[in-house]
C-alpha cells in the first residue's frame, strides 16, 4: 500500500545515537552529526535550524514508524497525510 507521509527529526532532541538508521535506511548521518535523510529516497526534504522533514510516498511507512519507536529521545515524528 502506498502512503504519503512526513517524517521529522527534531534536531534539538536528536543525540546522534543512530538507533534509527538500522530501522530505516533512508535515515542517514548528516554533516552535523545528527540524523537526516537520503534525499534520493524522498519526494522532498525541508530543513530549518531545528528540524529536518522528509516527505515520502511509498510503502515503507512501517519502517519510518519503527525508526520513530527506536529513537531513545523520541526525536522522530511521523505524520500520515490524508
Ligand atoms: S535514533 Fe533518534 S537520537 Fe538517535 S540519531 Fe536517530 S533521530 Fe537522532
Descriptive report:
It is a single chain. The strands form 2 sheets. A 4-stranded antiparallel beta sheet has the order 4-5-1-6, with helices on one face. It has a two-stranded antiparallel ribbon with strand order 2-3. The protein is 12% helix and 38% strand. The chain is mostly beta strands. The mean pLDDT is 97. It has one domain: 2-Layer Sandwich (Alpha-Beta Plaits), CATH 3.30.70. The longest helix is centred in the C-terminal third of the chain and has 10 residues. The site of iron/sulfur cluster has 14 residues, from loops.
Question: What would you say about this model in short?
Answer:
The protein is mainly β. It is 12% helix and 38% strand.
- Unreliable spans: none
Helix content: 10-25%
Query: What structural class should be given to the helix and strand makeup?
Result: mainly beta
What summary fits the major beta sheet? 4 strands, antiparallel
Widest sheet, order of strands: 4-5-1-6
The total of helices stands at: 1
Rg? 11 Å
Question: What's the SSE pattern?
Answer: EEEEEHE
> Distance N terminus to C terminus?
14 Å
CATH class: Alpha Beta
Strand content: 35-45%
CATH architecture: 2-Layer Sandwich
CATH topology: Alpha-Beta Plaits
How many structural domains does the protein architecture include?
A: 1
Sequence-ordered SSE layout with sheet pairings:
Elements: E1 3-10, E2 27-29, E3 35-37, E4 44-47, E5 51-58, H1 61-70, E6 76-80
Antiparallel strand pairs: 1-5, 1-6, 2-3, 4-5
Bound molecules: iron/sulfur cluster (SF4).
Residues 9, 14-20, 34-35, 71, 73, 75-76 line the site of iron/sulfur cluster (SF4).
